[in-house]
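**User:** Once you have settled down, spend some time on the protein underneath, comparing sequence with structure tokens, and judge whether sequence predicts the tokens.
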Amino acid sequence: MNQSRDDGLTHLDARGNVRMVDVSEKSVTARTATATAIVTLRPDVLEKLVSGGLRKGEAITTAKIAGISAAKRTGDLIPLCHPLTLEWVDVAIEPDDASKLRVTATARTQGRTGVEMEALTAASVAALTLYDMAKAADKSIVIGPVQLEQKSGGQSGTYQRAE
């Protein structure tokens, strides 16, 4: 197995060269991760998104499907991520206030490496899809923060973002 660096940067070897982490000797465990992305937009555009009143069609459903599809492709998109067999991915999109949508993506697997990147990718791509669907009505849309909320499983155990 690849040796860990003292600074915790697992994708670098002892000389600072980029490498894929060797997970072949890790135990298979249940792994779950949840990430969120906030999409801030004008209240009138948010209402159109939620009601399905945009010219491009049903944005919320399209964004959910895009997020799930993206999670399944994370190993293709992020160069040093391991390709994972995902056992479940969910993307929920709900108003957070009058001008914000909260995208929540959760991924689960049984594996040797975590699903944080899959959850973050799903939340990010779902948010980008909302932007794409609504950009004709509001070019000032802001995406962010995109962040890991929680993860469980593996050697590092459980992480829960503090409020």
